[in-house]
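Q: I'm building a small set of examples for a reading group on sequence design. Run inverse folding on the following structure and report the sequence directly after it, with nothing in between.
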């Protein structure tokens, strides 16, 4: 049986031991398959994502000078990165300020406020109390209609 590879889009013969095979055996296609699997795993499995973050932090603690040494050994990388950062900084400066500011009168067309009963903890002189104020939040007007 033959299929199109999801990475290179070329026809390949499916290994009979792997009936759901979606990628051919080329190394670039296998790298793409693993990359997609990792991204999917990180987005769907919070434990996996947390473990990956912790493993990366641990590695950085054990290798604190890695990037400094890398830049020293690869000056062309450092220069390319420096040039790209200057371009990114210049791009940010030339963007109009208006693009970064949300418009107050802009309506999304749906409620972003949750309505209902809410308990607000009462604090007196920085001492937490078990008591709470019960508050009801209701929408009294809808989004602006145009």
């Amino acid at each position: 049986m033959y299929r199109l590879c999801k990475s290179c889009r070329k026809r390949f013969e499916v290994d009979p031991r792997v009936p759901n095979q979606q990628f051919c055996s080329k190394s670039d296609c296998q790298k793409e398959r693993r990359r997609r699997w990792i991204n999917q795993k990180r987005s769907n499995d919070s434990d996996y994502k947390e473990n990956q973050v912790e493993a990366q932090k641990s590695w950085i603690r054990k290798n604190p000078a890695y990037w400094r040494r890398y830049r020293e050994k690869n000056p062309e990388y450092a220069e390319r990165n420096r040039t790209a950062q200057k371009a990114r900084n210049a791009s940010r400066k030339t963007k109009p300020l208006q693009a970064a500011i949300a418009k107050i009168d802009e309506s999304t067309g749906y409620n972003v406020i949750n309505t209902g009963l809410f308990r607000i903890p009462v604090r007196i002189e920085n001492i937490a109390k078990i008591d709470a104020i019960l508050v009801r939040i209701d929408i009294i007007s809808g989004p602006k209609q145009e």
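The mean pLDDT is 84.
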